[in-house]
Amino acid sequence: MELNNLTAISPIDGRYRKQVAFLGEYFSEFALIKYRVFVEVEYFLFLGDKKFFKLSTAVKQQLKDLAANINLEDAQKIKDIEAITNHDVKAVEYFIKEKLDVLGIGSLKEWVHFGLTSQDINNTAIPLSWKHCMEQDYLPAVANIQQHLQQLATAWKAIPMLAKTHGQAASPTILGKEIMVFTERIANQVRLFSYTPYSAKFGGATGNFNAHHIAFPNKDWVNLGNKFVDSLGLERMQFTTQIEHYDNLAAHCDSIKRINTILIDLCRDIWTYISMDYFKQKTKAGEVGSSAMPHKVNPIDFENAEGNLGIANALLEHFAAKLPISRLQRDLTDSTVLRNLGVPVAHTLLAIKSLEKGLGKLLLNEAKIAADLENNWAVVAEAIQTILRRENYPNPYEALKDLTRGNNAITKASMHKFINNLSVSDAIKEELLAIAPTNYTGVLAEF
Predict the structure, then answer these.
(1) Which residue has the higher pLDDT, 402 or 219?
(2) Which of 271, 296, 389, 397 is the most buried (most CB within 10 A)?
(3) How far is C-alpha 397 from the geometric centre of its chain's CA atoms?
(4) Using CB atoms within 10 A of its CB, is residue 398 exposed (0-12), middle (13-18) or buried (19+)?
C-alpha cells in the first residue's frame, strides 16, 4: 500500500500531518541527513581554520552553501550510498568527499570525518536539531499558551467563584486567580527547562580523542573539541564514552513531561467547569457536537489535548529513563530510541493547538457562577468562626459546624439569623453580616 495521509500507520503522518509537517525540518530522516552534513562540513571548515590545511574563501563559501542547501535529491544520493555501505554516517562522509572532488579539492578529502566516530556526528547533529526545535517552535508554543492564560486570568480577575475541594463547596475563590495558578506553574517549569544546556559528545571512538592525539600529539584536542562544539551553540561534555550520556536531554524530556502534566491538569479543570455550566462554548456553523444528540457541544478540544499529552508523556518517560543507560562504552539502543524523538514533540504541539482552540471557544456563564455562590452560603462559616475566634467567642468552630455540616438548607437568611442570635456586640454582628460568598475571596498577589 502506497504511503499517504490516509494509509499512514501513525496519525502524526496521517490524520494530523498538516498540523505537524513543519517538524520534519527537525526530526525526519531528511532532517537528520541535513544536520549530519552540516556538522561534517562545519568540522572540515574548522580544521581548515585551525591551519591543518588551507581553503580559499571561495571554497569555504561553496561548502557552506552545500551544507545550507541540502535538498531531497542530495538526501536520496546519500541513501543510495548507504544502501551500499550499510552505514548512514559513512554515507554522508562519502557524499561530501564526492563534492570535494567536484570542487577541485579532492586532495583534502581525508580530512572529512577526520578522527571521528559516527556518534561524534550524531551526538552533535541530533542535539542541534533538538535545540532548534525547542527554541523556534516548542518554547514559543508554550509561551503562547501561557500568554493566552494570562489574558484570560486578567479578564476574569473580578469574577468570584465557588471553589471545590474534594469535589465539595469550599471557600470562594477568583476565577482569574485559578487560571493564574497554571500560568505560574508553566512559567516555573519553562525556567527550569532553560537552565538545562543542550549538550553534545565530540571526542572520537571512546571519547578520548585517541585517533586525533596519535596523529597530532602536540595539539590540544580537548580545547579544540570544546571550541568546535561551542561554535555550534552546544556544550561539549568533557567525559563520555562513545556516545553522549543524554542526561541533559533526559532532563529536557522530564521538563516537557512536567509541563504536559500541568496542561493535562488544566484540561481536566476546564472540562469540569464546562460540565458545571460555568463555561459555554462558541459554536461554528456546520459543526456537529454529537452524532446522536443535536443539542450537545462536546469539549473535544480539551479531550483531544489531554489524549495527546498522555501519549507524549508516555514516550518522554521512556526517553528519560532509557537514554542515559548504555552498556559499557556503547550499545545501539539509543539510536533506535532517538529515531522517535520528534513523536512526543508532535503530540505535545498537537495538544497545545487543541488547547488554544478550546480556550478560544470559551464563553463565561456568569449567571451560573453567581447562582452557585448564592446557593452555598455555608461556605462563609469559615469566615464567621474565624472572626469569632479573634473575639475569643467560646467554641466558634463547633457552633458553625453544628449549624452547617450536612445541612443543605443554609441560606443567607438562615446564616443572618444565626449571626443575629450570637452574644456579640452590634459592631461585630455588622461585620459578620457584611460577609457574603461573593466577597469572601481573600487577597491575592497582583496579576
Answers:
(1) 219
(2) 271
(3) 45
(4) exposed
Alpha helices, DSSP H only, in 134-174? 139-155
| Domains in the chain, CATH or no CATH each | 18-113 (1.10.275.10), 119-362 (1.20.200.10), 376-433 (1.10.40.30)
Alpha carbon distance 439, 271 (integer Å) = 26
Helix (H) or strand (E) holding 171: strand 168-174
pLDDT of residue 284: 74
CB within 8 Å of 314: residues ≥ 6 apart: none
Looking at residue 404, its pLDDT comes to 81
- Is pTM beyond 0.90? Reply is yes
Amino acid, single-letter form, for residue 58: A
Angle at alpha carbon of residue 298, lines to 166 and 271, rounded to 5°? 25
**What's the rounded mean pLDDT across residues 155-182?**
97
Residue 140 · residue 146 · CB < 8 Å: no
Task: Cell 477568583: give the residue.
Answer: 174
Active site residue 129: no
User: Under the phi-then-psi rule, with left for phi > 0, alpha for psi from -120 to 50, and beta for the rest, what region is 90?
Assistant: alpha
Beta bridge partners of 163: 170
What is the residue type of 382?
Answer: E
Angle at 248 between CA 241 and CA 319, to 5 degrees: 90
> Is the distance from CB of 189 to CB of 165 less than 8 angstroms?
no
Closest CA to 203 of 233, 230, 248, 239: 239
- Please identify which of the residues 166, 291, 295, 423 carries the catalytic annotation: 166
In order, the DSSP letters of 179-193 are HHHHHHHHHHHHHHH
C-alpha cell at 134: 525547542
Q: What angle do CA 150, 156, 157 make, to 5 degrees?
A: 85
Task: Select which of 56, 290, 335, 347 is catalytic.
Answer: 290
Look up residue 226 and give its three cell numbers.
Answer: 570544546
CA 224, CA 116: separation in Å to the nearest integer?
A: 13
The DSSP-derived string for 411-437 is -HHHHHHHHHTSSS-HHHHHHHHT--T
166 is catalytic: yes
Which helix (H) or strand (E) element contains residue 318? helix 300-322
